[in-house]
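Exercise 7. Given the encoded structure of a 237-residue chain, write a plausible sequence.
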């Protein structure tokens, strides 16, 4: 899954927003080290979260934002899906992940390890291979950031089995929160065509695109990404 960004409601200072930054699979809060100070320098409050690595009781990976939206719709002014898996309200929460998996050949994971876990091995954890990170996620990012990712990567999961057992996200909760989607044009992890399928499947309020950007725009184009976040937040004051 890809990092997802949640933009919280304004504080008492009408010019100040609270941005909650949520990372994607096999990563951590560290991946926002370029974007966080840019937002703070612009006067905003920023929280970068560290999600638990795995487990139905502690984390749902890339779908964690949708779960938060469903539970706390009144506390979120707008949610931004950054080249990320975005569920709908008509299908199971696992639907978009299953669709993605059916379209991605095993060879495309470039040696990424998949290991069963949980009762009756119902879950599947993953550990990105160095080749997948280099050629599939970070191919346009600075080599120093790739090296940082290789040093700090950890096991993750798409939680397809867990999500398939959940009830659908509600129109009153998740579906009631304004959504934006930022398309990363050169993403090989979640290709542009699939990103646009996600948008067609569950239309959003705003669509933005970043050219010449891989799966990790927080490394590849941090200033442009920061500008997009602030532009989106300003539209939902």
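Solution.
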């Amino acid at each position: 899954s890809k990092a997802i960004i949640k933009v919280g409601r304004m504080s008492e200072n009408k010019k100040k927003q609270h941005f909650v930054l949520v990372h994607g699979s096999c990563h951590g809060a560290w991946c926002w080290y370029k974007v966080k100070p840019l937002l703070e320098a612009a006067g905003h409050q920023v929280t970068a979260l560290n999600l638990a690595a795995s487990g139905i009781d502690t984390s749902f990976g890339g779908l964690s934002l949708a779960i938060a939206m469903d539970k706390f719709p009144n506390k979120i002014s707008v949610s931004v899906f950054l080249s990320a898996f975005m569920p709908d309200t008509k299908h199971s929460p696992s639907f978009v992940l299953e669709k993605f998996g059916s379209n991605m050949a095993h060879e495309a994971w470039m040696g990424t390890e998949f290991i069963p876990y949980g009762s009756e091995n119902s879950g599947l954890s993953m550990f990105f291979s160095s080749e997948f990170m280099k050629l599939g996620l970070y191919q346009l990012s600075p080599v120093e950031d790739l090296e940082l990712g290789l040093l700090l990567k950890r096991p993750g999961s798409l939680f397809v089995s867990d999500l398939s057992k959940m009830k659908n996200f509600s129109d009153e909760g998740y579906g009631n929160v304004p959504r934006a989607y930022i398309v990363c044009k050169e993403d090989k992890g979640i290709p542009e065509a699939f990103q646009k399928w996600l948008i067609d499947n569950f239309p959003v309020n705003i669509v933005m695109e970043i050219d010449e950007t891989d799966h990790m725009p927080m490394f590849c184009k941090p200033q442009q990404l920061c500008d997009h976040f602030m532009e989106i937040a300003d539209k939902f004051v």
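Remark. The two ends are 28 Å apart (CA to CA). Students should compare their own answers with the one above.
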